[in-house]
Every structure is written in structure tokens, then in C-alpha cells.
Predict the 3D structure of the following.
Amino acid sequence: PISRITTIYEGTTGIQSNDLIGRKIGRDGGAAMNLLLADMSRELEALDASDSATSATRKAALEAVGLLKDSTESLLKALSSRQDAAMAVSVPYLMLCGYV
């Protein structure tokens, strides 16, 4: 039973990741993702980070948003030249989006 759930889950993850890259990111050239990332950065920058814990958390979150932005740009380049390479990293990209 558990192995069947894993199979279904993994299949769904692949479908969702391919949709994210092929139809969402690829369709608008990353415009919607870039707007989301800009909103995230703006909100994080606006945080009162007067204490060290909040400051460290904000710094780490801003770094993560920057890495996702860089990943998105790399992915868009790959989509334009090697779609197979872009799709090969669709699940890790989806997971990165979830972590950030």
C-alpha cells in the first residue's frame, strides 16, 4: 500500500512540475514568477529587523529568494535552447519553489 501511494505521489509531482515549467514559467517568460519574487523581496525588506534573530532570518530568506530568481533565469534560458534539460530539473525546481 505505501509503495502504491509513493508511485501516485511521484507521478503527480512530475505532472505538477512539468506544468509549472512548461505552462506557467514558459508561457509568460517567467513574468508572474518574477512579480511574486519581487513581492517577496519587498515584504522581507520592509520587516523590522532590529533584533538579531529577525535580521538573520530576513537575510536568509532574501538570499533564498535571490537563489530562486537565479534558478528561474537559468531555467528560462534552458527552456529556450534545451527544453529537455529544463524539464529534467522540473521536480527539483518545484521543490525549491516550495522551500522558498
Observations:
- Helices lie at 2-25, 31-46, 52-81, 83-88, 90-99.
- The chain has a mean pLDDT of 90.
